[in-house]
Please model this.
Amino acid sequence: MTTDVLLNLTPKDQLRAGRLSRRLTQLLLGLWLYGTSMAMMIRSGLGLDPWDVFHSGLAARLPLSFGVIVTIIGALVLLLWIPLRQMPGLGTVANVVVIGAATDLALWLLPAPDSWAIRVPLLLGGVVLNGLAGALYIGAQLGPGPRDGLMTGLARRSRFSLRAVRTGIEVAVLAVGFALGGVVGVGTVLYALAIGPLVQTMLPWVAVRLAPASTTSAPPVVSHRPAAETPGGVA
Model:
């Protein structure tokens, strides 16, 4: 299934494109659910996506909460947009702030289970919820997450495909995270295989339809790779 509901909007156009109240609500809901899904995967203890392997490795070595580390890394990645001449949208900034806070709150509320009967559903539910959350915040059309923009910016500035850039970044953060003691497991593989199809399936259900005529941007972008809009882990 392809998705033709996403427009190629500048940051200014994102705010002018209409239905802003609905889109802001959907953005914040998506980001909050994204952080909650990350906490569910963490509590399952069965493996994390590549970026969260990196975050968990840092959390094991620094006196900071997982959510605070997510926020700090998001802000540092956002700084890398400057030489790439990427322009963040409102959703980009919200991504840095909201997901980390949501993750820490969910980790505080969710106990760490011992039973496989709880851990497996937590993992599966976390992956599915992550796909829905990613579709929600992407579908709000208010700007990509910091890690998304890093991938697309590097791909645009280099001669490499988006797939190659994404793979390179995620392999790198996974390797560093594993070396730091991050949690790798079956959930890591499951996430890698499932997140693309999940987002691609759910995005048309929740994307806010915007009329191209109401913006000054290019016509709608046909996206064959919605998974590239979502980081392995955090957007």
